[in-house]
Amino acid sequence: MTTPVSVWARDLLMGVRFAVAGGRPGWARTTLTAIGVGLGVALLLLAASAPHVLSAREARSDARDPVWHEELPPGSDTFRYEVLATTYHGEQVRGVLLQPDAGQDTTATPPPGLDAFPEPGEMLVSPALQRMLDASGNAPLRERLAEWEATGTIGDSGLVGPAELAFYAGTDSLSDTFADGTPSNNRSDAFGTTYPSTPLHPMLILLILVICVVLLMPVAVFIATAVRFGGERRDQRLAALRLVGADRRSTHRIAAGEALAGAVLGLVVGVALFLVLRSLASRVSIAGLSAFPGDFVPSPPLTVLILVAVPLSAVLVTLFALRGVAIEPLGVVRDAVPRPRRLGWRLIPAVLGLLLLLPLAGSYSAGGDGAREIQAGAGIVLVLVGATAFLPWMVERCVAAFRGGPVSWQLAVRRLQLGSGPASRAVSGITVAVAGAIALQMLFGGVRGEQTVETGRDTEQAQVQVSTYGMDYENGSRLFGELAGTQGVAEVFGTYSGSAVRPEDRDGIDDRIPMDVVVADCATLRQMAALTACADGDAFISVDPDQEAAADYVPLPGPGDTVDLGVDSGGVTYPGGPALWTVPDATERVEPVSGVTGRWAHGILATPAALDGSMIGYGYTEAVIRLAPEDRAETVEELRTLVFGLPERPYLWQLQSESVSDEFATVQRGLLVGAIAVLALIGASMIVSQLEQLRERKRLLAALVAFGTKRSTLGVSVLWQTAVPVLLGLAVASLAGTVLGVVLMRMVGLQVSDWFGFLPMAAAGLVVIAVVTLASMPLLWRLMRPEGLRTE
Predict the structure, then answer these.
(1) How many CB atoms are closer than 10 A to CB 405?
(2) Partners of 660 in beta bridges
(3) Residue 196 burial class via C-beta count within 10 angstroms: exposed 0-12, middle 13-18, buried 19 and up
(4) How large is the C-alpha radius of gyration of the chain?
(5) 553 DSSP 8-state letter
(6) Of 438, 523, 460, 481, nearest to 642 (Cα)?
(7) Which residue in 7, 591, 627, 654 has the most C-beta neighbors within 10 A?
(8) Half-sphere exposure of 569 (CA within 13 A, CB side)
(9) What DSSP string runs through 414-431?
(10) Stretch (H or E) spanning 205
(11) Predicted confidence (pLDDT) per residue in 475-495, tens digit
(12) Does the pLDDT value for residue 224 go beyond 90?
């Protein structure tokens, strides 16, 4: 007895046979579908691997961090450590100094990636760092690490990624205290620790949610488009089945079987492509992120979802596409009397999406059971689906109104008027991507403003800052001289500072903040206070009116008063007793200014002849550096090399006018990685779709050339056929993306500051037009040969 299931199975199997054994046309269609679906599946599998990639990187990072102990006695299984990081041309180099307490007899377990602790004077480096050291042109980096000899490499388990620059160096110079005398607490007995996770701000969670939707929606749209490749020829083949008795439903099921075969083959292609890309992962680094091939393990639930959803969507999309096609025994009735597309239902997804998003305006907060994230994600998806559904109607209505023009324009317009569906489907992916990217760009700009803090530093006046605690005054002065003598340095503003308190104010100091004490030359002091005159030997009292009136600051001294310079920032006297200094009688009160140094001092400003900086206990050494405009990057590297080996470990960083939170910077890098992948997919998908459309019109193109049509005319016609739908798609995407962006910003209480955020993405769409057209030219020229008139 025939059952519905058996009928479906029979017809689907017949469709599969047509796909794999249907001659050259069937194979061509199946191959194009498999390539298209395979590209999408590969990207989906990469996306499904992202959680494991991130967790694997984090696990390796935690596993190599020493366990911290406040107090740990030395033993045969203990070791000292010190993190020694540097930067080289914008790339972070992570270094760790290791010193086993028992020397060569240690029983301590070495860090992951190492078989044993390095001996003093030796280091083990990551493969990426070894390549950089071996490469020519990296002399500053080699000089920086010249203290140690590279004797081996770090294994994969000791690196967060294959492109990480890292080293472990052996030493025998680590002690119980830092240079300023404070305990180092740098002894441990094991590696491997965990850190509590910090919840992300709701703005960042929404931003991540939008990124995921925007990056994955074009993939889903492209897969749905790929299963419809070659639809016109397929329908003509199905018409022949009607002659041998197949009914309308059977032909639809057979067509679904063909699509199913292409989708399943696409899964195979996608998995194979994923494995190839996975094997090449160690050679790629994007925005400083890299991963080992073994990190790319797709999430099992997501993998099952992909393997089930792709073939199922192929069947459903095919059945949906055939609902308006009458396949009769005498041919396909598709375009004889075109029925205009209806607008009503195409607006429903976008309206539903806005109805889901608008209630969240001004009240979006993440957390709980995730219901708000699901609501927001569903709303974003529906708005983007609405833009895709609206595009075919938009293209049809616009091209119907086109009249006249050059021959190439008329050929393109007539082709679009006869059937705009394939062209609309070809650009649906870029429409979704651009609409989502515009919304993302608007939200990204708003969130960046919230996650960015103005530093107040004038990067035109100074570009580099060097600072350290615990360096004595003599070495600090020597450091200022060496910095000033570095080629490419125009000026150095050096300060040596500490804290002070009047002896009579020591009672109750725990509740108040000591005054600042700064020793510097006159050029530097003029950057910190409004001085009428200054000479070596002068001293000043810098008075901040707000801080002077505050009860939590100690009173400032006057001329002739005595202050204790041997205290820390909490007013506690350093070992060795007080260091008393008398304020000169000619000391002038001045107002602080925020100059190049960025310091806003409230306290004593003194020149070296007025105050011996060595009296300041464990001072803070700081140099703000103005660079010459020539070759600043190399000058910065020379400065890094100069300060790297100093025992006080000065920290050098380049000044910025604004700083961005670490979480936002991480999201920004993730967006860049995903955007590159999706843009590559969009370009590939449009090229495949364009080639499929050209293949469908092979005989027509050859016939036009045979009748005398210029090849250049047909080439320009292909350009117009690509450009018109893309331009209309960009218009729809700009509108949908702007509306979605405004709604998303209102959800987190942000105001729209850039109404022209769609322009960069629109420009990207124009670039896609040029790339797709150029890529299709070789096939177009080949199809216009006389051999294209042959038929089988």
Answers:
(1) 12
(2) 452
(3) exposed
(4) 35
(5) B
(6) 481
(7) 627
(8) 4
(9) HHHHH--HHHHHHHHHHH
(10) helix 202-226
(11) 999 999 999 999 999 999 999
(12) no
